[in-house]
Design goal:
The protein is mainly alpha-helical. It folds into two domains: about 1-55, Arc Repressor Mutant, subunit A (Orthogonal Bundle), CATH 1.10.10; about 65-190, Tetracycline Repressor, domain 2, CATH 1.10.357. It is built from nine helices and no strands. It has helices at about 1-30, 35-40, 45-50, 55-80, 85-100, 105-115, 125-140, 145-165, 170-185. The longest helix is centred in the N-terminal third of the chain and has 27 residues, at about 1-30. The protein is elongated, with a radius of gyration of 20 Å. About 25% of the residues are buried.
Length: about 200
């Protein structure tokens, strides 16, 4: 039992450090987010931060990983309710964008980190999106198009929105979500007849 408490305590301290890194990077940028400043933001020492993370890069990696994990969980819950390719695609776009709206500070911090360290060539979100599009084509719900190009275009719409949506909660953000989903559905030929 004591080891569980210690594990919970360590996990809580790591979470505090990640949250502090998010706040600091969002507010002041990556260049200002040294381990020492992140530790101070978390109300702890640099030594404690380095006990939990080997270096700044590992801490930055946790900021990025926690955002992607939370995003997958958020979207996964919503996508389970979809029963048709059209619903899956609409929910995919809407849930991605709503996640950005609801997690703006973390999204901005992650973007700043990725801009600093670079992004790998292969986007892991493209293959499952491409498969979703191909399923819709096979079922005759979507028109003919290159699924790879369409998947990249949809991801570009979502990823670029992450630069514009944080701070637009409420009607303006919801308008963007609805318009973006309608745009994607029109592009794949799955918009309702009255929306074309």
């Amino acid at each position: 039992m004591p080891s569980d408490a210690l594990t919970r305590t360590r996990r809580a301290r790591r979470d505090d450090l990640v949250a502090a890194a998010i706040r600091l990077i969002h507010r002041d940028g990556v260049h200002a987010a040294s381990v020492e400043r992140i530790a101070a933001e978390a109300g702890t020492s640099k030594g404690t931060a380095l006990y939990h993370f080997a270096n700044k890069e590992e801490l930055y990696g946790s900021v990025v990983d926690t955002l992607f994990e939370a995003g997958r969980a958020y979207m996964g819950e919503r996508l389970q309710a979809a029963t048709t390719p059209r619903e899956r695609l609409a929910i995919y776009v809407e849930s991605n964008l709503r996640f950005v709206l609801e997690n703006g500070e973390h999204v901005v911090a992650t973007q700043r980190i990725l801009e600093q360290i670079g992004v790998g060539d292969a986007d892991p979100s493209i293959p499952p999106l491409r498969a979703m599009l191909e399923d819709g084509q096979r079922e005759g719900v979507f028109v003919a198009f290159d699924s790879e190009v369409m998947a990249i275009a949809i991801r570009a719409l979502i990823d670029t929105a992450a630069y514009h949506l944080p701070g637009r909660a409420g009607g303006d953000g919801e308008h963007y979500v609805a318009e973006a989903a309608a745009l994607v559905l029109r592009a794949v030929g799955a918009a309702p007849p009255d929306a074309r």
